[in-house]
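User: Fold this; tokens only.

Assistant: Input:
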Amino acid sequence: MSSLPWAAAPAAGNAIGLYAKWSPALDGKVEAALQRLRDAHAEHGAGLVQSSSLGVEDMVITDLIARAQLPVDIATLDTGKLHAETLALIPAIGERYGRTVAVFKPVAEAVITFVKREGEDAMYKSIDLRKACCGVRKMEPLGRMLAGRTAWITGLRREQSGARGDVGFDENDGQGRRKISPIADWTWAEVWAYVEKYAVPYNPLHDQFMPSIGCAPCTRAIAVGEDFRAGRWWWEDSSKECGLHAKG
């Protein structure tokens, strides 16, 4: 199930208080995730990169990489439409872990051309235009991020949505690279239990009922009983994907 386990808590509560629950299985899951990361680095070396959305799952993975003392590059996409709270995590990673995050931005001219042609609110007009916006702002810079890489690390979890229910720990991304999802089997409660135990930095927007955070115009808080990714492109009847994790 992808619905969140809501708890009765005051509005002032935070995501840790709402969700964190260390399960008996989590110690083993942490060790297994660390081993997956070690194995990926042993196999791919400098060809491996963590593609971080700066969401809580990816912050957990960055913490795991640091805990394992792996020299894995960390990179993120700055679409030009991210929340300030999301961008603030880039220097926070440097301060906490001593790691530099490589930032990939869309080609400015391509964004200007798209906005002039379709408008700033193109994403609301049709699914095709929203995906075209994602193409300019996310897919093209992702291609540059992954150029020359043989594998990338993601924060995908099977619980996130039906479309991600069969995510593998190590699978072909359809472009000749391996996609490593070391916490694919973790629950939302386990993610937050890890955050609590190891004081992992996270986006404060998660405290405002935003479990999945993307571009500001395309993200809202979710209501009780809504699916994990219901706050993404909420005006659409779609699979709630932008193409970054399309099945290849």
